[in-house]
Specification:
There is one protein chain. The protein has 196 residues and is α+β, with helices and mostly antiparallel strands. It is built from six helices and ten strands. The chain has a five-stranded mixed β-sheet with strand order 1-2-3-4-5. Strand 7 and strand 8 form a beta hairpin. Bound molecules: zinc ion.
Length: 196
């Protein structure tokens, strides 16, 4: 175990977590992050500031992105060590319109600038914002994607309404509207680490 790395730590299966719980918790205490997968999908992130559920886009929205931008998301079936698109879109459905707009922007840019050919590498929520990583592209395209993704800090990750960035007592961060925020608050459990 512990040989699979992503850009933010290591992925482990639920079985490995149970089997090596003490060893893993020692590493978390030393500052390392782990992402626990179930049936190949990231499920929770264990970090020094707490345990967090990994959000994921629903099947309908995911399939729509794959079918409308088949070329951009062509690495989705590659193994994890080649592309993290194998995890799907690890953000809420409220950001679907923004992810769609960025995918269309990239596709149109590459059409006009063939030298900026690229493939989506990972699309996820991090620190309350959308991250849309590509393999390839050029500096202009990377800047355009970053600027578009900044809009996520004002869009509810759950329902697309205007939102602000919220922080939980354990340091978890999510961008939510006034309507969706209370539901997230009910998930704050200081004892949540014990649920594993
Ligand atoms: Zn909302």
């Amino acid at each position: 175990m512990l040989d699979r790395r992503s850009d933010e730590g290591q992925t482990i299966t639920m079985t490995e977590l149970r089997r090596h719980f003490h060893k893993i918790m020692n590493r978390v205490a030393a500052g390392q992050e782990f992402i626990v997968t179930m049936r190949g999908n990231p499920t929770v992130r264990i970090s020094p500031i707490g345990v967090k559920e990994v959000p994921s886009m629903n099947k309908e929205n995911t399939e729509r992105l794959y079918s409308d931008f088949d070329h951009l998301f062509r690495d989705r079936n590659k193994p994890e060590k080649e592309s993290l698109m194998c995890w799907g879109f690890t953000c809420g459905d409220g950001w679907f319109p923004l992810v769609y707009a960025i995918a269309r922007m990239i596709t149109e840019y590459v059409k006009a600038h063939p030298e900026a050919e690229c493939a989506a590498f990972q699309v996820k929520e991090k620190f309350g914002g959308l991250r849309f990583y590509i393999r390839g592209g050029d500096d202009t395209l990377h800047r355009m994607i970053w600027e578009e993704a900044q809009k996520s800090f004002a869009i509810c990750e759950t329902c697309s309404a205007p939102a602000i960035v919220r922080t939980s007592p354990t340091g978890a961060v999510r961008t939510l509207c006034d309507g969706c925020y209370p539901a997230w608050r009910t998930t704050w459990r200081p004892e949540s680490a014990r649920l594993i």
